[in-house]
Amino acid sequence: MRLLAVIVVLLTAGPLAASAAESTGTGVQLSDPVGTGAVLELVLGLVAVIALILLLAWAVKRVNLLPGQRSGMQVVAVLPLGQRERAVLVQVGEKQLLLGVGASQVTLLERFETPVIEPKRGPDGVFSKRLQDVMRQRGSITSPRSEPDA
């Protein structure tokens, strides 16, 4: 309760002192808080803070301080299979791993000793065609059925 009283006194003392100083003419004159100088100072401060944030982000990316940046793993291709499921081909050293990624688990589907797709060289669609070919060879999937015309 005392804290509330102190806050009320402090909040009301400032305007009362300013009005008393104006009436006597001996008070300190306050500058306009929304003047050009104040706005310019505010804008320059914001620009400096944003520039500092961008500089630090660039430095962190350049120095590779983020975990996992030099792990030797690379996602080669991703094939969506459903709403939350996808097949992901990951390059680890000289091997490639085909992973099934679901909402709650990751499953190793196949391990390739030789690269199936060269990283960042294959055009879009090559992964899905190659995946279907490999799965057909292993007997995992059957060829698409032809629907009889009605």
Q: How would you sum up this structure, described in words?
A:
By secondary structure, the protein is an alpha+beta fold. Among the domains are: 36 residues; 66 residues. The protein is built from 3 helices and 4 strands, in the order ααββββα. Strands 1-2-3-4 form a 4-stranded antiparallel beta sheet, with no helix packed on it. A hairpin with a 4-residue loop joins β3 and β4. The C terminus is likely disordered. It is found in: Cell membrane; Bacterial flagellum basal body. Keywords: Bacterial flagellum, Cell membrane, Membrane, Signal, Transmembrane, Transmembrane helix. It holds the Pfam family FliO.
Secondary structure topology:
Elements: H1 2-24, H2 36-63, E1 73-80, E2 86-92, E3 95-101, E4 106-112, H3 126-138
Antiparallel strand pairs: 1-2, 2-3, 3-4
